[in-house]
Request: fold
Amino acid sequence: MSGPATASRHLGLDLGGTNIKWVIARRAGEAWEVVERGTVGTDAAAGPAAVVRRLARIGTEAVAGSAVSSVGIGLPGLYDPAAGTTRFLPNLPGEWNGVPVAAPVGQALAAPTHVVNDARAFGLAELRLGAARGVRSMIGLVIGTGVGGVFAIDGQVYQGRDGTGGELGHQTVDPDGPSCNCGNHGCLEAFTRADRIAAACGTDTADQAVERARSGDPVAVAGIAEVGRYLGIGIASMVTVLTPERVVLGGGVAAAIDLLMGPIHAEMRRRVRTTSLDGVEVVPAELGTWAGAIGAAVHGAERAAAAVGSAP
Reply:
């Protein structure tokens, strides 16, 4: 009879434009537990090199002399997974093309270090510890300033050949639609990101839009319904292609999921024709603003384990 699984500790860092969140997650076999967490200001205006040094310092202080087996870093944009460098981080000032992140942080912490997109980190966290735990297939959307996406097949988040697999917010839902920050027109993000939610509801912010919709304001109610309609169109397309067991909605939109669920389901029923919707659940994310850091820790651990397993 085998004994209990040996526990290991893993650091996750989630780089945001305003704050850097960190967690230390404990893994024993397939069981995960967050044991420590914290938030520190990013000081993004200091520039990319200073931000990377800050990541290393925050990680070193978080570990506090107790070694971790791996480090994962969630990045808000595009990156080179093999080199561990950034390609494009639109919400951070400065020139982020080709900035080394994994190597300097890994050297400071003396641990294997890997980077991941923050939306994929969100999905991995919800898959292992949150709203999608126990399922083999899922799709996820994180709706905030932009719309991040993720999907998992056979229990694994799909990264694609270059780490960009899962950009579900940039599927085209209307070829003649409004411009998107990615340069395309009519992306799902162009209809459902926070500023478009506010505009549709006649408010200054998405939070105000949700408040007014809850109070029965007719403009806000209609605006939220329109956002839900486009979410339903996008989700229906993803369900048709991937036939997932669960759809997880996170970011600021999770607070309004009860208002969005009606139009989302209406569009899914209207548009999904090749598979049954009986086995598809649409649920809010469970891990809140910590999902990115938690998922980064999981990603770092799983990549480190895979590297060991593939070594000759």
